[in-house]
User: Which sequence fits this backbone?
């Protein structure tokens, strides 16, 4: 594998999906946070950071290839759509050090 390439394996996808499906609520507001979603968010942020660093990200078993973080963001929103509505922090909310990137909008209030 090219060192400028990263693959999200089928096993990794299963793990991310399992974190997403863990819907045991905790904390305010109104129990909308989910216990393992913070872990999932951090996993997704790590992949986003790879893309920001110029690494190509592929999804094993599919034709999906990401070269820019905002395409990855859209894919994540499709796969894990409840996160944006029910978790205060999402994958695009930390400070970006790169330039010429689309702005990151506040997603949850």
Assistant:
């Amino acid at each position: 594998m090219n060192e400028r390439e990263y693959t999200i394996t089928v096993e990794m996808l299963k793990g991310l999906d399992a974190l997403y499906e863990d819907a045991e609520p905790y904390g305010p507001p109104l129990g909308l946070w989910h216990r393992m979603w913070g872990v999932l968010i951090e996993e997704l942020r790590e992949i986003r950071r790879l893309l920001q660093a110029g690494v190509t990200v592929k999804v094993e078993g599919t034709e999906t290839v990401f070269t820019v973080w905002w395409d990855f963001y859209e894919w994540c929103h499709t796969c894990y759509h409840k996160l944006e509505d029910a978790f205060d922090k999402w994958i695009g909310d930390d400070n970006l050090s790169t330039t010429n990137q689309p702005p990151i909008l506040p997603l949850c209030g």
The chain has a mean pLDDT of 75. The chain has one domain: 5-86. The first strand starts at residue 5 and ends at 8. DSSP finds four helices and five strands in the chain.
